[in-house]
Structure formats: structure tokens, C-alpha cells
Specification:
Strand content: 15-25%
Order of helices and strands: HEHHEE
Number of strands: 3
Shape: globular
Number of domains: 1
Radius of gyration: 12 Å
Structural class: alpha+beta
Oligomer: single chain
Strand order of the largest sheet: 1-3-2
CATH class: Mainly Alpha
Number of helices: 3
CATH architecture: Orthogonal Bundle
Helix content: 40-55%
Distance between the termini: 28 Å
CATH superfamily: Winged helix-like DNA-binding domain superfamily/Winged helix DNA-binding domain
CATH topology: Arc Repressor Mutant, subunit A
Largest sheet: 3 strands, antiparallel
Length: 76
Amino acid sequence: MRRIALDIKKEILQLLKKNKEMSLRELESKINTNNKTIRSQVEELEYFGFVKIIKHEKNEINGRPYTTIVLISNSR
């Protein structure tokens, strides 16, 4: 069954309320959807001021760049 964008955004916000900061890959696996969908939903949430997207130069473990998402504290 295909989920609507609003449901995916709700799941993202619920996970971030519990974890405060998560990578795009973590969100992708927890919500069980693809990277492109997660990225577009997170970008929309950032536009409306719910989250902040942080791009990191490199991961300490594998040296690759990665992106994390942080819940902005004044969001519901």
C-alpha cells in the first residue's frame, strides 16, 4: 500500500522526537522507503522550519560524506 507524503513526514518527525538527530540512511531504513522520497520530505520539512539538514564532510568510520537531520526544538 502506498503511503501519502503527510504520513511519511509524520513518521520522520516522530523518529526525530525520539532520537533528536538521525542520518538520511537511518530514516530511510526505519521508515522503509527510498532515499529520494526521504530527501524530498526532509527538504520540505526544513523549508517550513521543522528540521535542519546538516551536511558532514566525512564519516569518522568510512571517510565518506553524509547528511544528518536534526529536529528544531520549537517544532511540535
